[in-house]
Design the sequence.
């Protein structure tokens, strides 16, 4: 019966694990809903911002901010948005794989890369992978705030203005739906805004205090809002990916338990049969 | 009926207000602004203060903003409100913090303790920042 006992403890431990995974699944489902709401809440700001930038683009052709002008690319910057915690399926790894591919392609063209990381998984990745990490932020939690990101974004933008990087990308997992999250690499700077809406006559804003000051403020806020949006979106992706991963883990545990139960029953039956035959043969011997 | 102008107040973390108004008052960088319908296009930075929306019928709605950008089109007023207290040196300090964190996190085992300390300090700084914000709000 020794084998049967071992199997029994194994079943018990799998059941415990299953309890944990199913609890995590439910927690992730609840958090996912909240994260999705948060994602929806960020949209109006980004849309309004885009409108204003679009207006500015048409209104003021003579003053061009450096964020809006293309230049030759020698070094690119990546802002990598990852999760702080694991157990969320292949979410982070998929992103890093897409990123590494991109970096390789850039490297072949003789373009170097610098990085800013958001979330501890990305930081851990670059510890092994190597590379120039200029700034990082971890532990942003389930409710990211824009002020947590200001520093990290500013480091990148300062590098851009100083000419250290010539293009900035943001990498995150785009939330398509609960089942699908897509690793996405988007260009942040220079801003490529093409607004279809056309205003017929030539006009310009009144700027207070002056156009440079207003534009500097506006553009850095716009970029922060974009990064914030990708962080929020990545958060929703993380939760839904975790929910799916935990769901399949729970199902796997079910399958394992069924199999083990079968093995256990067989072992038990074999032990009983053996015992009976021993008794019978013992009785026959007497 | 009196002329109205559409007002949108949004922040990065959510929409705050949307509706029609007869008059909008906002704390511009160079002084208080009153915006009536068909105002000429204008963009300005906002100071921390109160945005008031006069929706007619003697109703006045108050919104606190800790700064942001105001855009005026003849029929639309957009307030892009900040959720954080912004100042040049605060931003600078945040950037420095982010850089230092990266350096410390990547400089190996020895820095681990320092890193924890830096995190704690950062948390404290954030708490202070929030307190300032709350104090300003209470005013």
Sequence:
């Amino acid at each position: 019966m020794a084998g049967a006992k071992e199997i029994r403890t194994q079943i018990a431990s799998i059941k415990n694990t299953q309890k944990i995974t199913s609890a995590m699944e439910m927690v992730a489902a609840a958090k996912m809903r909240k994260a999705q709401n948060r994602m929806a809440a960020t949209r109006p700001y980004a849309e309004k911002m885009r409108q204003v930038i679009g207006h500015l683009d048409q209104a003021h052709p003579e003053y061009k901010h450096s964020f809006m002008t293309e230049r030759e690319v020698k070094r690119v910057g990546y802002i990598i948005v990852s999760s702080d915690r694991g157990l969320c399926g292949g979410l982070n790894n998929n992103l890093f794989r897409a990123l590494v591919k991109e970096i390789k392609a850039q490297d072949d063209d003789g373009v170097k890369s610098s990085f800013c990381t958001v979330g501890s998984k990305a930081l851990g990745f670059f510890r092994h992978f190597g590379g120039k990490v200029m700034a990082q932020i971890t532990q942003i939690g389930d409710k990211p705030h824009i002020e947590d990101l200001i520093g990290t974004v500013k480091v990148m933008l300062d590098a851009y203005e100083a000419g250290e990087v010539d293009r900035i990308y943001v990498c995150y997992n785009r939330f398509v739906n609960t089942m699908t999250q897509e690793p996405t690499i988007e260009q942040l700077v220079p801003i490529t805004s093409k607004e279809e809406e056309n205003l017929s006559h030539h006009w310009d804003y009144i700027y207070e205090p002056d156009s440079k000051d207003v534009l500097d403020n506006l553009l850095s806020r716009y970029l922060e809002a974009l990064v914030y949006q990708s962080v929020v979106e990545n958060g929703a992706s993380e939760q839904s990916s975790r929910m799916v991963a935990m769901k399949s883990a729970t199902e796997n545990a079910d399958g394992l338990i069924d199999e083990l139960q079968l093995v256990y029953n067989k072992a038990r039956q074999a032990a009983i049969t053996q015992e009976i035959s021993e008794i019978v043969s013992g009785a026959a011997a007497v | 009926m009196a002329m109205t102008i559409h007002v949108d107040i949004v922040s990065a973390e959510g929409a705050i207000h949307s509706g029609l108004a007869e008059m909008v008052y906002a704390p511009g960088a160079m002084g208080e602004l009153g915006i009536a319908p068909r105002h000429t296009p204008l963009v300005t930075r906002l100071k921390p203060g109160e945005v008031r929306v006069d929706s007619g019928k003697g109703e006045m709605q108050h919104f606190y903003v800790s700064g942001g950008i105001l855009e005026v089109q003849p029929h639309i007023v957009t307030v892009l409100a900040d959720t954080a207290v912004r100042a040049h040196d605060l931003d600078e300090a945040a950037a420095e913090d982010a850089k230092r964190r990266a350096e410390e996190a990547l400089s190996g085992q020895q820095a681990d303790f320092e890193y924890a300390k830096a995190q704690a300090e950062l948390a404290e700084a954030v708490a202070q920042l929030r307190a300032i914000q709350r104090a300003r709000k209470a005013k």
Q: What stands out?
A: Helices of chain B lie at 88-106, 111-138.
